[in-house]
Amino acid sequence: MAAVITRANHPDFLYPGILTSWGLSYDKFPDIYTQIFETVDGSLQTEYLVASSGFGLARVKTESSPVTYDSDAEDYVTKVTPSVIGLGFQVTQEELEDNLYEEIAMSRADSLAFSMHTTIEIEHANLFLNGFSNTVLYGDNQPLFSASHPTKSGLQSNVPLVYSNLSEASLEDGLISIYQTKNSRGLNISLQAKKLIVSSANVFNANRILASQLRTGSANNDINSIKNLNLLPEGALVNPYFGMGSAAWYIQTNIPEDKGFLSIWRREPTLERDNEFDTQNMKCRSTARFAPTVADWRAGWGNAGS
Asked: Do residues 182 and 155 touch, judged by C-beta distance below 8 A?
């Protein structure tokens, strides 16, 4: 049976004398996922994200011989089906009539919106948190962050050889790895880092590494090359929904937004209310339909930490 809020849930609300009440409404973080994901409208039950291989290197043409012809092909397909999330509450007519504190009843809608906002952020954060898991695979049959992304020219990687906690040295290794990324045919591409994404546990560490004029954790009077070369032009983004215990950290690249991290929406969050005829209970619900995903795994580089 669905939970119903009755007068017994908040007996003190039936009597005067309450100075203050709390717990239904808190300030929420501003949208985090929109700073990583490109929001796009979905129109189908299942959306298809299709990768193409492109062409290989040109070849030497000898005199009187024909030009070599190449063909591109479909590489892999990621299928995305947006899911529905929803939450609601119902209140008896008697509770609404006898509750002396209208602001309490009004704040329930705010609390419902807060829950929806938090759920949406967690669903997007989970794309990164599950990014190393072999149980969450994409079109190339690999997790988002893998050393074995299959391409027409062989396996490629968007993880380090050995996972390590965030440091100046490990971040430099990640930036070098991004510079060496190739397309499916093995040709170098102009892939560059854009943003460092960390959990709350790494907020101070990330700031020291990116903001210091000189190298961190060293007595040497060397410049901070990451800062000097502006290799992370959008700095660091702290995602509180990663959890305090997460040592993993990520680098977002300059892959075009519509080919990188995508938030596909079929339905924006809605708030609806109605009264049940037989019981006269007031019902309020909110639903949304969306799916966070990634088209090209080159949109991110991940280190699970140690």
From this structure: no
